[in-house]
Amino acid sequence: MLEQRYRWKNKHLREHIDVLDGKRPPDIMLKDAVYLNQVLRKWMTANIWIYDDRIVYVGEKLPENLAGCEIVDCTGRYLVPGYIEPHSHPFQLYNPLTLSRYASNFGTTTLINDNLVLFLQLEKKKAFSLLGELRNIPATMYWWCRFDSQSEIQNEELIFSHGEVKSWLEHDAVLQGGELTGWPRLLAGDDMLLHWMQEAKRMRKQIEGHFPGASEKTLAKMMLFGADADHEAMTGKEVMDRLMQGYTVSLRHSSIRPDLPKLLDDIQELGIQHFDKFLFTTDGSPPAFYEEGLTDNMIRMAIEKGIPVIDAYNMATINVARYYNFEYLHGNIATGRVANINFLEDVKNPTPVSVLAKGKWVKRDGVESKEYAEIKWGDYGFEPLKLDFDIGAGDLEFSMPFGIEMVNDVITKPYSITSDVSYDELSFGHDECFFMMVDAAGKWRINTIIKGFANKLCGFASSYSSTGDIILIGKRREDIITAFKRMKEIGGGIVMTEHGKVIYELPLTMKGVMTNEPVRKLIGKEKELKGLLQERGYPFSDPVYSLLFFSSTHLPYIRVTPQGMYDVMNKTVLFPTIMR
Fold first, then answer.
1. Residue 280 near residue 308 (C-beta atoms within 8 A)
2. For 83-331, CATH number?
């Protein structure tokens, strides 16, 4: 379903030619700009003409017609292409618009986004209309097409039907299939998944892997199936294994896998000196992780670790553009490209002082632009969560013989419940809490005990989860009910209660999973959440991802899903959900 066959229509291209011929002035002329020329791999000086959202000329010439043209003296600045995030999850409390606005001020002007939340939360027509409106913001957005839910949801075969997946793959804003969190199904003989991969390849689109801990043989098999890249390497050896099998490797630095410094050390110790097959990704981290920047921080780390400066910038720009086959639009400063340009004070400081995105100033001399598109999210179905049911004492029954124990922020394993959990309140002397997941439509629930999440948490409710269902945790049943009621009142979100009082709330009024608050405000709210949880015994660093991954079956070992307690390694539902 092609929404826009050409980026520029014929009349626009004629206007661009008119600028070169002096019949029209450029909108902006960057004079005496020292810029990174990635073809020649050196810094060069040129005049850069910009008309609307496009670079129409790079060279020594000056425009014949300068009527109304903004002339920018670039003395003392170094220009590099806008950075590209190749693996974004733009739904981590923030939404695609608020994330892109924040990211562009740090120079990341293009994002290639996960579509999972759109797939699960919106009908296709509204989702595609939203993609169309997001074309109009200063940042550039492309998308993936998921092939599975990353969990065990009910009626998945109807949601991820052939028709739905194929429609997404055909959309011109979609650049790749994946990420392949369901790859074990592929190895087990799932021919529908393989067919979708074949379709993506037929359309000249890439396939993004998700292969943590994969052996050399598995990596080879997945390459034969059609995978092109993977972002799950955690050591230099794993990087090398992927390179040897022909993969493009995204080096990751995220809130739960801050691996980049080690990876950079490892690959240099292994003697790797060519970096054309490397990209950078922050892998959809929560807001607080981005407090000091995004891709710009990764470039900085690379430079500080001894990666040649030009290669460090290339991994965030031209390498990504070449991988996704859109070098003619992005990733370099050259005639015909989209005018995404970062202005630096120093080549070793990749955080820009000024940023052009689609030829518009989103940051100028350190000051963020106040002019940014707004979206009426309610028009696309992202309204406050409306729950037409209540949670009562009868729902909070806990009789399962085993629970889930947290190994780290996101890994959970089974454990045998030995304490008496029949009381209305559990002891603060241990780290076991009541845990319940309930369907957002109120049709089913599953109850167990969670160990290792907290030891003094009274009540907690979250509509933020990977499946959009409700998570309830706590020591006191009464406080759990209070937290749920407040979360319901505010239209979805995260609520913490203590002895009948609400001590924290974060409204997520976009389907209960996102907010329209600016990322800078979210950073403070996330820090507050983490601080309150840690005071109550949460021993890890990333509660946002803990909540997100309770139901995500691409991680071991035990998960709470809409189908029930799920054994990931044996692909078995151990205890089904209970109908309410």
1. no
2. 3.20.20.140
To the question of pTM greater than 0.70 for the whole model, the response is yes
Domain residue extents for the chain: 83-331, 393-579
Q: What is the pLDDT of residues 486-503, one digit of tens each?
A: 999 999 999 999 999 999
Three-state secondary-structure class, residue 327: coil
Residue pointed to by tokens 């661009």: 16
DSSP-derived letter for residue 439 is -
Chain-centroid distance, C-alpha 379 = 23
Q: Using one digit for the tens of pLDDT, what is the confidence trace for 199-251?
A: 999 999 999 999 999 999 999 999 999 999 999 999 999 999 999 999 999 99
Q: How far apart are CA 214 and CA 207, in angstroms?
A: 16
| SS3 sequence of 467-491 | CCCEEEEECEHHHHHHHHHHHHHCC
Strands 70-73 and 28-37: parallel
Q: What is the mean pLDDT of the chain?
A: 96
Which sign, positive or negative, has the C-alpha torsion 313, 316, 317, 321? positive
Q: For residue 201, what are its two tokens?
A: 């390849």
pLDDT tens digits, 500-534:
999 999 999 999 999 999 999 999 999 999 999 99
3-state secondary structure of 458: coil
Residue 549, token pair as written in the block: 């991954």
Cα(196)–Cα(470) distance, rounded to whole angstroms? Answer: 31
Q: Is the dihedral of CA 436, 482, 536, 258 positive or negative?
A: positive
The model's confidence at residue 4, banded by pLDDT at 50, 70 and 90, is low
Confidence band, pLDDT 50/70/90 cuts, at residue 2:
very low
Tokens at residue 269, please? Answer: 């110790």
Give Cβ neighbours of residue 434 (< 8 Å, ≥ 6 apart): 396, 398, 421, 426, 447, 449, 450, 472, 473, 474, 475, 477, 480
Position 3 pLDDT exceeds 70 = no
Residue 222's identity, in one-letter code, is: M
